[in-house]
Each structure stands twice: as C-alpha cells, then as structure tokens.
C-alpha cells in the first residue's frame, strides 16, 4: 500500500513509519522530512500531491496546539490551534481526496482529550472533538469511496518524558502506531480508534 504520512518527523509519526515497514511510506512534514508541506497552505499540499501522485492512504499526525489553563489561553492560542490542527487538517483532507485511490483511506489524529478533557486542555479538546465529528460526518457521505477515521492517542510516554512528566501512565509511540496500522488496513469508516484497543 502506498501511504502518505504527514507529520512523519514527530515522535508518533516516526513510530508509525517504522511500524508500516511493509508498506510504501512517503514521509512529509513541515520540516526535517523527505518531503516538506505546510497543511495551512493549500498550494503547498497540492504541490506535494503533484510530486508524489496518487496514494492508497493518507495519515496525518500534524497539528500545532496550545495547552494551557483556560484563563491563560489567548485569542492567538485559539487561532493557532483551530487554524493549524483543525482547519489545516481539513484543508489537507479536501486536497487529498482528489489523490486517494477509490477504496482508500484518510486518517486524522484527534486525541484522548476529546472525550476526557483535563485542566489545560480546553483548546486541544475542542479541536480533537471537532476532528472526530468531522470524520464521522465525512464518512457518511463518502461510504464506498473513501474510509475516513480518526485515531485517538493517549499521552505518549516519550513526549511525557521530554516534558518532565511522570510517564507511568503513558503509552509508547510504538504502541500508539498500531492503531494507525489498523485504521489503514481495516474496512471500517467513521470511527475514532482508541489506541488502547490495539496494543
């Protein structure tokens, strides 16, 4: 399967690329990757697809977010989170649908905080829940043409360690990647796959 992985230079993206070693994975990120792409720039996305051609699946782990107490979140924090993580991925989706082979798939990354908000997660929970809802609605309209799903990671152990957090409850990037494999290899659509179900 020819898979375009957006966000490949990140901790989870790199783990997904390693897990999908038996597929043809094309790696793209904003920087430090085989291909560069800005998900907030439609022309950049179009240029990437014109370069690589049609694919069987697209996985996006890309998205900038703001994580802070609600009384500290600025208007710019919301603008960045919505503009990049939400609208950037929706722009990517709309361009990608023209280049994904029939019966292929598009997988967004939402997150555990969509259903289980925590202090400081207001902006993140908002956009993750929006991506879950968008994927479910899009799947209804594209049934039989394109599988549309989200994967909902929990806190990633490696990220927690970098942030100086207690990582005891974290899930490794390698284990997180398994849900993305399921997303592209299954025939399910309109689902939010919880990573704990695929470890």
Question: What can be said about this structure in brief?
Answer:
The protein has helices at 11-19, 42-52, 75-96, 122-141, 157-162, 173-185; strands at 2-6, 24-29, 35-36, 55-60, 100-109, 146-152, 192-194. The chain is of the alpha/beta class and 199 residues long. Strands 3-2-1-4-5-6-7 form a 7-stranded parallel sheet, with helices on both faces.
Secondary-structure topology with pairs:
Elements: E1 2-6, H1 11-19, E2 24-29, E3 35-36, H2 42-52, E4 55-60, H3 75-96, E5 100-109, H4 122-141, E6 146-152, H5 157-162, H6 173-185, E7 192-194
Parallel strand pairs: 1-2, 1-4, 2-3, 4-5, 5-6, 6-7
Inertia-based shape:
globular
**Rounded radius of gyration (Å):** 16 Å
CATH superfamily: NAD(P)-binding Rossmann-like Domain
What's the number of structural domains?
A: 1
Strand order of the largest sheet: 3-2-1-4-5-6-7
CATH C-level label: Alpha Beta
Percentage of residues in strands: 15-25%
Under CATH, the topology can be stated as Rossmann fold
> What is the tally of helical segments?
6
Q: Which oligomeric state applies?
A: single chain
Instruction: Spell the H/E element sequence.
Output: EHEEHEHEHEHHE
How would you characterize the largest beta sheet? Answer: 7 strands, parallel
Mean pLDDT: 96
The helicity comes to: 40-55%
Alpha carbon gap, first and last residue: 22 Å
Low-pLDDT stretches:
none
